[in-house]
């Protein structure tokens, strides 16, 4: 790519014109991946292959962008604004790539597929099961100890999401702190 850019630099008066149009075309192709995800009924390739093209073309477009700006910081306000937007989108893409690779490993640790929209249902199911066990234990033993502990510590735990960041990191520290 660098060799092609050098050849066009000597052949063209303004090589940024060509690199700008190629960069524009690559951004359109990158944007087409979002449309591909929404239009699932057309047989235009698998989403996984589109994702691979999106990743590699995105990384290639960063190199093309750096060639387009001649490896320097833009000096006009419009150029600077466009560069900031491009760098922001590129950084969000790299961050998304890292998180998709890292979090997928963490999410599959549990042994079953976790769908974000189903998490509140799982929490409600666990809360109901815990409350039934507390009532059953209190009725069986005749002691209010378990129900008092549940009311003091566990009811709040089941009421809303807790320790989201620690769950993302795979930490169990909050569970040990709760038992103390």
UniProtKB/TrEMBL annotation:
Tagged with keyword Transmembrane helix: yes
Keywords: Membrane, Transmembrane, Transmembrane helix
Name of the protein: Uncharacterized protein
Keyword Membrane: yes
Transmembrane spans: 16-33, 53-71, 77-99
The species this protein was found in: marine metagenome
């Amino acid at each position: 790519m660098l060799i092609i850019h050098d050849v066009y630099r000597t052949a063209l008066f303004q090589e940024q014109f060509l690199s700008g149009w190629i960069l524009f075309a690559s951004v359109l192709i990158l944007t087409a991946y979002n449309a591909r995800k929404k239009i699932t009924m057309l047989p235009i390739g698998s989403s996984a292959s589109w994702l691979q093209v999106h990743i590699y073309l995105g990384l290639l477009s960063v190199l093309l962008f750096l060639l387009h700006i001649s490896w320097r910081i833009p000096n006009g306000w419009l150029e600077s604004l466009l560069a900031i937007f491009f760098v922001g989108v590129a950084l969000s893409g790299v961050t998304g790539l890292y998180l998709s690779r890292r979090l997928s490993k963490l999410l599959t640790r549990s042994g079953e597929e976790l769908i974000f929209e189903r998490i509140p249902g799982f929490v409600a199911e666990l809360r109901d099961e815990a409350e039934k066990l507390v009532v059953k234990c209190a009725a069986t033993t005749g002691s209010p100890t378990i129900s008092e502990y549940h009311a003091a510590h566990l009811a709040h735990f089941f009421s809303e999401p807790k320790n989201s960041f620690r769950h993302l990191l795979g930490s169990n520290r909050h569970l040990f702190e709760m038992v103390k």
